[in-house]
Design a protein that fits this description.
Largest sheet: 5 strands, parallel
Shape: elongated
Order of helices and strands: EHEHHEHEHEHHEEHEHEH
Number of helices: 10
Number of strands: 9
Oligomer: single chain
Radius of gyration: 19 Å
CATH topology of the largest domain: Rossmann fold
Strand content: 15-25%
Length: 257
Amino acid sequence: MTYRVFVSCSKSDVDLARDVAKGIQKVGAEPFIAEAGIEPGQNWLEEVRRILSRSDEMVIVLSKDSIGNEWVNVEMGMAFGLHKLITPITSNLDSGKLPPVVRALPVVRYYRMHEYLRDLETRVEKTSHPTYSDVSGRRGVDSTYEMRVAEELNSGHIPFDRHPKALEQFRPDFAIPSSKEPKFFLEARENLTKTSSVGWLNYYARFIKSDYPQVKIVVVSQELTANTRRLLSKYWNYVFSDSEMDKLVELLKSSLG
């Protein structure tokens, strides 16, 4: 299975981004440079959303000429909303000039890019050799919390797919049942206590409903407050806390009949 890396950059950093992309290719991943890869006349926002949703992680190339670039910020915001791994790679840029949201990420200086590529290669190899198999015998689940949710689905004998290839514009954590026409999409988020996280997730939900109006969308979280539940319920068909996992399984079993 191809491991994809979305490379975000401004026009002034395209050459630098191409150099980063070469390194990404060398470790077995497939890079996509948005600034160079989206053709004129295409719907830019739609293309970015479609490609990002199919990507496994994002790299942001930043220099003193591109810091604060509007489009890079939009792409980074989309990646946050899609809960992608984000790694900023900086060149000739003082860390003190980075926005707080970027400083909170695992920033890598360009001259130490080999460290990022080493870690990326590990993730590529891990994807090639999944650590967990779902009931359909398809792609494994990697994160600890998603694995717990997968185990609950398994215990209820509920067939599901992880990132089904048939759904190109949206990669849910789980599609239920395991078919090209699922009845449910399920997002598993470990922590949804911050309203900022909920905002991006609700933004995400509007796109899901637009693309797949016939599918019910469900979110389950290990940490959920009464307020974030209320906010999520405006856009998600069902919202469950981790303690309500049995209710989630019962809903899916009764619906699949």
